[in-house]
Amino acid sequence: MSHAREVLAGIPMPVSQKSNTLKFYGGILFTLAIAAAGTVASNLPVLDRIGAMLTSILIAVLYRNFFGYPESIRTGIQFSAHRVLRFAIILYGFKLNIDVVLKQGGWLLVHDVLSIFIGISITILFAKLFKGEKMLSLLLGIGTGVCGAAAIAAVSPIVNADDEDTALGAGIIALIGTVFAIGYALIRPVLPITPVQFGIWSGISLHEIGHVAAAAATAGPNALENGLLAKLGRVFLLIPLSMILSFWTRRKNTQEVAKRAPFPWILIGFLAMSIIGTYCNIPKNIVSDISNVIGPFLLAAGMVGLGLHVHLSHLRSRALQPVLAMLIASIVLSVFSYVTLWF
What we know:
Layout: H1 2-9, H2 15-41, H3 51-67, H4 74-92, H5 98-104, H6 108-129, H7 134-145, H8 148-155, H9 163-187, H10 195-205, H11 209-216, H12 221-236, H13 238-252, H14 255-260, H15 265-279, H16 284-307, H17 312-340
């Protein structure tokens, strides 16, 4: 970033330094361009079912495997994959209204805690039985239990996950979650539950906020409101879960590695944005633009940076067992959450 400061100060830069600066900003613009293309393409039939983020990741993965990794602009891509992505997660905090969760959804937190426990534990258990990769399985379990790709992106630096695992996890969770959301909407008319119960069921069992909104909206505004409230409880629980994971990582690793384990500052920023969005008098349209437009777009750009590390040849060898484990966990979570509606 010193290059940027020198440019702003009017200090002449050597040719090589100017070239590095252009490559840096070129890499960032490259990820933003793919995210923009993914956002536009997500309005097309079929792609409108999987959303802008997954579409952007798919474009990035296809580019990587057909044209190779763009080494000349690596620094900018890495900046998007880490710094921009983390900033997007911080902005994601605007989606969490702490006051609403604590005052209106307190009783739903019990269901949300169970959802997180089931999502993580069942995924890890079956991944171990299937001899699947531990890190990818952990990320998929967290995505299943908490809030999809956003949770995976948030905890990845805490558990020292690499870029390929993070991108694979985010893409898989978005795709599987979309399938489940469509399935919920299709079976809703034959289920013996009220619209409010359907909304709550969606909120405590589906993977991402977008999935909950898509499914619950089919049952009406009351279902949508209760579904989002239940889901926000799981987003809220991302904060203590990340603290637990940070402590666990430091205890598990050697003393030397533990010293390098990052403190989850991203969650501090996430909580700060939640507090600002909840208790500060910010116009609702501004909060909505940040949480529903700017934040998701930057999240997609960050995921593009990660997606450029994914080798399609690795999908079958690395992802099959974790995906099967996650599917089982998702089904168990759906059934368990449905049964608990009656208690």
